[in-house]
Structure formats: C-alpha cells, structure tokens
Amino acid sequence: MSKSPIWRAVLFAGVLLSGRTTAEPHRVALPVGAQKAIFELPEGWEQSDHRVVEGAITAKFSAPKSQLTLLVTALFFPAPPEVDVQSVVREMNKDNAAESIEQQCAPKLLKRVEGAGAFCEFTDADLDQVTSVPAGQYKYVSAGLVLSKGLAINFTILTNDVGQRAYAEALGVMEHVVVAGPVM
Q1: In whole angstroms, what is the distance from residue 171 CA to residue 102 CA?
Q2: Where are the alpha helices (DSSP H) in 64-143?
Q3: CA-CA distances (angstroms) from residue 94 to 36, 50, 88, 89?
C-alpha cells in the first residue's frame, strides 16, 4: 500500500510539513479567504508550519509522545446542503480501500455540531502482520472530509495504534472544528 499515489502524497505532505513549531496551546485558526477553520487542539498537541497552495491551506498536527499525525487541508468548496458526505468520502478513498486489508471504504459519520463529516479507516495490507513498523510508515490510515459553511476540510490520520488516546483525540478535533466568517 505504501507505493500508491495517495499514500505517497500523504507521506510527501508529511515531509513537506515537517518543520515543527509550537502553536497556541488549544486553538489554531487556518484562514481560507474571508473564513477561518478553527481547530481546538488537545493539551500538548503541536502544529507544524502550514502551507498555502492555490487557495487551499494544509497543516500538520502532532500528538505528544505519540506516533500520530493529523494532516488537514481546508479549501473553499460551496457544496450544496444535499451533498452526501459519505458518498464523497467513499469515492475519495477508492485507492486507499483497494490497497488495504478492508478492501472497501465503510464511512463512519463524525458527530458534528455544524455541517457534516465522515471518514474511513484502513489497515495497510503490506504492514498488517508486521510487529515493528519501519520509521516513517504507518499501519493505519483514517481519511475523511468535513463540509461546513462553504469550506471542505479534508483530513488524514496516520498512526500505528488506533487504540491509543491520541487517535480518539484526533477524531475529536475533526468533530469540533468550526468555520468562522461569512458563509460563502
């Protein structure tokens, strides 16, 4: 699975964003046009430098003392309210599903206060039976999407342990991200 274009892109994004800086302890706002995607980070989490490419902003968040990375990309996306976020997530994860143990994307809904969100969880088929995952590789990938007030927030969680507290915290960050500013 580590050789697929999506996994390479995710790892490239991780390398691209590897310059670490400490963000405000709990709140990070990523500007997209006149709006902001505001992330509430758990205690101790760090944000790496963000990058802006063609109106989209990408950031990397890391959990303390954990090999977990949360990559987020926010972009302007005026989706109609009737968009089925689960179908979009299923479509955007076809390559991940094909190269995983699961062989399919079974979207799970995020418990969102505003907007809609869903994600799929995958186990890397090449790393499923490995007891010691090589550095820079991840056994589990969760990839999803949040749609809220004219923004699309694509996210990827990379980890070697989906049972750890940091994994639940990363999902919580995506459940509670809010969009501030005028509705586009």
Answers
A1: 20
A2: 85-92, 94-98
A3: 29, 27, 10, 9
The tokens describing 164, both together, are 């750890």
Q: Where are the beta strands (DSSP E) in 54-163?
A: 56-62, 69-76, 108-109, 116-123, 140-148, 151-159
Residue owning tokens 């991840």: 138
Residue 58 three-state SS: strand
Separation of alpha carbons 181 and 36, rounded Å: 6
Residue spans of alpha helices (H) in the chain: 5-16, 85-92, 94-98, 165-176
Q: Report the pLDDT value the prediction gives residue 11, as an integer from 0 to 100.
A: 38
Higher pLDDT residue, 7 or 78? 78
Token readout for 34 is 């006149």
The token duo for 88 is: 């979009």
User: Could you say which DSSP state residue 81 is in?
Assistant: T
Dist. CA 165–CA 174, nearest whole Å: 15
Distance of alpha carbon 127 from alpha carbon 141, whole angstroms: 12
**Dihedral (Cα; 100, 95, 142, 156), 10-degree rounding:** 140
Distance CA(181)–CA(178), nearest Å, equals 10
* pLDDT one-digit tens code per residue, 73-117: 999 887 777 889 999 999 999 998 888 989 999 999 999 988 899
3 state SS of 26 = coil
